[in-house]
Amino acid sequence: MSGLHVVSKTRKAGQRWYVYAWRGGPCIYQQDGARPVITPEILGAQQRALQDSFGGHSEDDIDAIIAGYEASPDFTTKKDSTKRDYRRWLTRISERFGNTPLSAFEDRRMRGDIIEWRDLWQDQPRTADKASVMMATLLGWAVENGKIEINVAAGIKQLHHVNKADQVWEDRHWQAVRAEKDFPAHIMDALELAQLTGLRLGDLIRLDWKCVGEKAIIVEKTGKRGGRAVIPIYDDLRKWIDARTDERTGTVLKNSRKTAWTDSGLETVWQRRKPEGFDRVIHDLRGTFVTKLAIKGLTDEEIAKIIGWTAKRIAEIRARYVDEARVIISLAERLSA
Fold first, then answer.
1. 27-32 vs 5-11, strand pairing mode
2. What phi-psi label fits residue 277: left (phi over 0), alpha (psi between -120 and 50 degrees) or beta?
3. Which one, of 232, 234, 239, lies nearest residue 302 by Cα?
4. Rounded CA gap, 77 and 72, in Å?
5. pLDDT per residue over 82-117, tens digit each?
6. Rounded CA gap, 21 and 27, in Å?
7. pLDDT tens per residue, range 314-332
């Protein structure tokens, strides 16, 4: 159905506000004075009104769609960490919309209800966006499987905006890390290997010594697209590998307990130990690897094959961090002559 409809009426005693489940629907809340804040209780009352209006059936509601989705390959084939995150949001969807009949989601005005629910987390934009994206994913599955005709959550505008331009770690970033007192060696190992290989964080922590050959590191199935990564072992990478004289079994990187990192372990420890005000993330070390290869003379196409990015993206990093630096050095030399 539609979003909530809020109207006011002036009385001798002051302003009174009325909240209706939808325009033309039943009144579900009244308040004198200030305009009412939409609370989970009000949204719950709206849901009950929707159920009464549509006469939903348990086998034909959102909870039924959630159950079907969780049993489908679209869900069961995902990584365990992804499934845990999805279940968290599917539970929240169930709490808000579980008993709402599917017929309500055939009305495009239901989009307003979804946005109002998402806005419960508006002070946490990334979290709010996860809410709408998960709802769109669930309804998209329902459309694909012939349960409903339209996906009213598709394309809801995101609240969180980031600068997606690739960044790299510069000398000042490494200096800041190395200046940290008692910075853990096992974290530094991870940072150094990240910039020497360009591997994604998930692939980095799972990298096994079996993947390290004489001429290249070969990862048969990378985490994001399931592709194959072949990283030539050049001099700097060879020095890093040769300096690791411990028993070369299991994962290359290990935590302080000498065991493999968990999916979130390295990122969590890094967040605790990184220098105050640090303006780079571990992912930015992929761009650092790109600049290293560019400086060594590889073409954009050659780098793209190694790291799995487009040549255009590589060219943008080259122009920003490699060519620009060379121009500045050249200008300085000419001005000093």
1. unpaired
2. left
3. 232
4. 8
5. 888 999 999 999 989 988 888 889 888 899 999 999
6. 6
7. 888 888 777 665 555 555 5
- Give the whole-angstrom CA distance, residue 287 versus residue 269: 22
Q: Please check whether residue 287 is in contact with residue 307, taking contact to mean a CB–CB distance below 8 angstroms.
A: no
Percentages helix, strand, coil for the chain, rounded to the nearest 5? 55, 10, 35
Instruction: List phi, psi (to 5°) of 14.
Output: 130, -165
| Cα–Cα dist 194/259, whole Å | 18
The two tokens of residue 105 are: 């989601």
Instruction: Give the count of beta carbons closer than 10 Å to the beta carbon of residue 18.
Output: 15
Q: pTM of the entire structure? A: 0.52
Burial status of residue 143 (CB atoms within 10 A of its CB: 0-12, 13-18, 19 or more): middle
Continuous H helices in the chain: 40-54, 62-70, 73-76, 80-97, 110-118, 125-144, 171-178, 185-197, 201-206, 235-242, 265-273, 285-295, 300-307, 311-317, 324-336
Residues constituting the chain = 337
Residue 234: pLDDT over 70: yes
Which has the closest alpha carbon to 40: 92, 105, 104? 92
Q: Which residue has the higher pLDDT, 253 or 163?
A: 253
Q: What sign does the CA torsion over 87, 91, 97, 102 have?
A: positive
Do 65 and 142 form a contact (C-beta atoms < 8 A)?
yes
Distances in Å between the Cα of 205 and the Cα atoms of 12, 201, 213, 264, 298 are 68, 6, 17, 10, 26
Nearest Cα to Cα of residue 201 among 257, 255, 266: 266
